[in-house]
Amino acid sequence: MKSTVAGNAQQIVLTLVIATMAAVPATAKEGSWKLDADHSTARIVLGTNAVNIGVAHVSGNVELNAAEPTNSGLDLSIDPAGGTLITFNSRRATMRPDGKLEVSGDLTVSRIVRPVTLNPGEDYSGPVYGEPTRQAFNRRVTFVLPMSDRGGQAEITAEANLFRENFPELFAAVSEVNWLPLVQDQTCAMPQASEDYAGAVCTGRVVGPDVSAGFASLGEDYHGFESATPRGNLMTIVLKLRLTRNYSEQATGGRNLR
């Protein structure tokens, strides 16, 4: 009788353990996150005086695995108005002694190039432009970011430093972009028609680029704000990523970004 009761008790305990394990999501094993592209940004900062020249949306996938840091990775694209400019595909991840994660991979920049023909002469009428072509350049770049593997939501900052002599094509590409202000949570409403009707009224939060770096020089030749000139050959890409735990992917075993 005792053995039967003990056996039943063990079976109940085992059943409870199995039920508990089944009820716990795979957050302890996997590190897959869903990136909120509407609230994740990349800032392009130039010079040692840190002039913020542009802000763009970031989309893609993020995996941060505290249990196995080498399984972490970033698969991202930086999208200013007008199309994708920069993509990053991670290849290697390591944990530093200070507890931060280093993710190295291929940073690719795309540029539209139009060949120009100059033929000075008596009948010269200006440059002749050829058909535009897309060129892609890539270099190995490392982002440094904190490890976040707890809770259902997280906001992290990842940074990568580059120098002009190591990636001149990237410096040229970002300088050619018309960096429009980035507005988050924008909503627009059409007002009632009237004599002073001027179109939709929109509200939202402008997150950049910074205009505080500019200055005004009042006078007869005043032409508006001027941006501070970047000093030095340093570029910093600052990622502000808003993440939500991706339980659906974890339930199927997670996703290897590489």
Question: Helices and strands: which structural class?
Answer: mainly beta
Overall geometric form = globular
Task: Indicate the low-confidence ranges by residue numbers.
Answer: 12-29, 211-219, 250-258
Number of helical regions: 3
Percent range of helical residues? 10-25%
Helix and strand sequence:
HEEEEEEEEEEHEEEEEH
CATH uppermost class of the domain at 26-116 and 128-182 and 233-251: Mainly Beta
Annotated CATH homologous superfamily of the domain at 26-116 and 128-182 and 233-251: Lipid/polyisoprenoid-binding, YceI-like
Strand fraction = 35-45%
Distance between the amino and carboxyl termini: 57 Å
What does this structure look like?
This protein has a domain at 26-116 and 128-182 and 233-251: Lipocalin (Beta Barrel), CATH 2.40.128.110. Helices cover 14% and strands 45% of the residues. It contains three helices and 15 strands. Strands 1, 2, 3, 4, 5, 6, 9, 10 and 15 form a nine-stranded antiparallel beta sheet that branches. It has a two-stranded antiparallel ribbon with strand order 7-8. Strands 11-12 form a two-stranded antiparallel ribbon.
